[in-house]
Design brief:
The protein is mostly helical. The protein contains nine helices and no strands. The model has no long low-confidence stretch (mean pLDDT about 95).
Length: about 180
């Protein structure tokens, strides 16, 4: 890791409930949260945006949200993100099958047409020299409302922010998903 987290006692009091929530949910404080927490106003902004995107009121199916976050994480070489998001995807999907096939999703029959459209859009947004085409958007809109496309776009953009942050700082996996490549 390129920058170390501070000792937990050194963070402001108003971040500590977030850290306690992470311990309840994941069994440990997440290293990226500690790194964002070094600049508390950034931590708060990221936490609020993440909360809005990973809401039960989301227009996007939870499995689809996880597929997208894992794929962005893979493309950005974020070991931490692949680890935690793969564990979430496996839990939401009920098995490791979609996790294990995701890097080769185009060749797999595990993904619905809507998931394929979302994954294609995800790659178009994430892979710098590709870009979103009108044809890609038209295919996406066959399966998703305009508001769902906005939410999906926000999710992909957020996961790019998160995974690029973690990758640049070389945040290691924290052992959430026991996979050989995680």
């Amino acid at each position: 890791m390129r920058i170390e987290p501070r000792p937990l006692a050194d963070y402001p009091w108003y971040l500590k409930p977030f850290f306690r929530s992470q311990v309840r949910r994941y069994g440990q404080v997440l290293v990226p949260g500690q790194l964002w927490g070094r600049v508390p106003r950034l931590f708060m902004a990221v936490a609020l945006l993440y909360g809005a995107l990973d809401s039960r009121r989301s227009l996007l199916d939870p499995v689809l949200r996880s597929l997208v976050t894992v794929r962005v994480s893979q493309l950005n070489w974020c070991r931490f993100c692949v680890d935690i998001n793969s564990a979430t995807l496996a839990r939401r999907a009920g098995s490791m099958a979609k996790v294990e096939a995701l890097e080769q999703w185009r060749a797999s029959d595990l993904y619905s047409l809507a998931e394929r459209a979302a994954l294609d859009y995800t790659e178009a947004m994430t892979i710098t020299d590709r870009g979103v085409t009108d044809a890609c958007m038209a295919e996406l809109r066959r399966y998703f409302t305009d508001d769902a496309v906005i939410e999906l776009t926000g999710l992909v953009a957020f996961q790019n922010l998160s995974s690029k942050f973690n990758s640049a700082l070389d945040v290691p996996p924290q052992g959430f998903c026991r996979r050989p490549d995680a």
